[in-house]
Give the backbone structure.
Amino acid sequence: MITLSSDFGSPYPAAMKAVIACMSDTRMVDVSHDFPRQDVRTTAFWLREILPYFPPAVHLVVVDPGVGTDRDALVVRAGEHALVGPDNGVLLPPARELAGGGTIEVFAVEQATDSETTLDPRAVAETWPPGAASSTFHGRDVFAPTATRVHELGVRNIEDEDAFTRKRGYEDFTLPQAEVGESVATGEILVIDDFGNAITNIPGEFVAQAFGSTVDVNGEPTSVERSYAHRSVGDRLLTVGSHGNVELAVNQGRGDEAFAVDVESAVTIRLDFE
Amino acid sequence: MITLSSDFGSPYPAAMKAVIACMSDTRMVDVSHDFPRQDVRTTAFWLREILPYFPPAVHLVVVDPGVGTDRDALVVRAGEHALVGPDNGVLLPPARELAGGGTIEVFAVEQATDSETTLDPRAVAETWPPGAASSTFHGRDVFAPTATRVHELGVRNIEDEDAFTRKRGYEDFTLPQAEVGESVATGEILVIDDFGNAITNIPGEFVAQAFGSTVDVNGEPTSVERSYAHRSVGDRLLTVGSHGNVELAVNQGRGDEAFAVDVESAVTIRLDFE
Amino acid sequence: MITLSSDFGSPYPAAMKAVIACMSDTRMVDVSHDFPRQDVRTTAFWLREILPYFPPAVHLVVVDPGVGTDRDALVVRAGEHALVGPDNGVLLPPARELAGGGTIEVFAVEQATDSETTLDPRAVAETWPPGAASSTFHGRDVFAPTATRVHELGVRNIEDEDAFTRKRGYEDFTLPQAEVGESVATGEILVIDDFGNAITNIPGEFVAQAFGSTVDVNGEPTSVERSYAHRSVGDRLLTVGSHGNVELAVNQGRGDEAFAVDVESAVTIRLDFE
């Protein structure tokens, strides 16, 4: 299986699927092509949360503000999974999660020189090593053929391919950590989901004993509830989302608006509300 | 085949597909993940219109304002199809249509207790009965594994599974019916589609003899046409949509704006316009 | 493989997939269902750019402002590919590209008369020749069954089907060509992509010697760069997009806004900028 993630919207992802389909019959599953444009942090968060639910697979990830520069194309092995994408840090948070505490291995992809490549669509799936036929769409020209190559080779056999060489000095990226004390936790909003739920980096365990009680969120009293529908429609609440993090929400409404927070806003929770 | 419908937008549906892919190689087809948020009525309408075109399948439906409450998870057998989703009525209109006049059978899904479940992604597809590992994303934790279980078991064999028990007092839901007389029909707008066509609950048969003539729609003279292009670009018209209902439309424009209607707006059509 | 393209948004494409799934197990790949409404020109551009990356396939294309009129349904053979859609020109630019200089062959699809068809969902996939059961959704009732029929028959065997007859007087459509001189090129914006890149009809070869230098775009000095990231974030630039055309862009921003252009805006590029 190959999963596909990008910030491409539509219709560019179809060109990646076309190239993959030329090279393999494997199942393709879209994770999302609506990740915020060039937003490595948000994409890394979602992939860290979602990819571990997949069976062993190759995960193609193209959020690539540096396309056309000399940043490398990477293959990252993490347990039975592999990730393929640009060297900008986006692959690392999901890779660490997929490795489940094991090591991750990073490979750079050798690319054909300009003189060896053309914009002929019929050549893309047949060119190896992949060539940056265009300087603006490596998803189609480099990452899709690379992901398919890894899939066909098998995640265990990445080192059998001459075009993949181990790389040390890759870009790393870590999502910010919350500071969690006994009764106070300070963190920030990592992402806002499509429902308007504001997902923090504060672990759900921090409020594990507080369900049904009231805590202080950025100075405002807020109920801690197991799910949205435990409050009336339109009421604000704090819950533990499906990713295991504390989430600021409104039952059938938008938590980001009710709590006046955006991505990167600071969040302080005090359990000893009185 | 498993079809997927939700109001999740992106990227949450990918987590459901991931869980299904852990348990089965079956084909997955998205119906839509852009149903209006928590809107049981609109979702039920579209599923009633679209699901009957599918071959026998298991239909996973997650529009679930009551997630995390004690509302049941349901499996509904309707002819050779099954529907899996929350007990809020959304499954019933499509189930009746899929049953084609036959009986529908409703089962509740036994769920693992909190103490038996964890948020470990690797455990979700292996936990049975399904556990509400999170209280906010039963699509991933309960409905996706249940739909896959039904698929693998076979729609005929639902009662072979101990975790599925027949249920009587489920939530029912019926889309509102129009009042149709000989020359006057009174109904309402059920949904507005992406084109802006305002779909009523008035059956197309009511205007079957009126094609090419003018009728009175909420007091305004309106042409009845077989399709949009029978009027000039920008002109309003009444037609019979692909669902068999009367639809208020504009050729290459938005019917909802031209007729000043929204979902639930009243619509009265008089054939004897003069 | 059957690819699907339309301007339907959601959830209408699911009904087409349902009909196809009743008739075939073949892989379905979405190109896009978000093409601008009734926009033959933009759809033709994208399909011309993207479809050639696919392996041999049947391409279902439904952008159909004339639905319900007497315009024909077409099957177009182009090399090892076939396209199925309405007779409004949208199929021709991608067909010529897929034929790669070879001939294209156009067939009209005989349709069942109204009296032979019903709105019964179970009948659509079993009705042949396809019937316009509805007058507003031929994607579901005519084009999806036709595309599947072509797929099952094989692209080489289109003439074996009695319902397909060769057609001469079909609607043709050609995307506008730029005028390219030695130092001046005059063209127009063909489409704006989701990133805001304004894609012209001026071939990339025109600026092949100008990378790293400054040219005059509609009177304003503009850098020619191999990719977006060669300029600072927010800076405007001219590049050659993945389709091989000159593109007006902004690094991590919207080119259409920075250059104040929209679809069909005139673009003049002078290489001899001083």
Residues 53 and 239 of chain B are 22 Å apart (CA to CA). The helical segments of chain B are 12-23, 40-50, 92-99, 121-124, 138-153, 255-258.
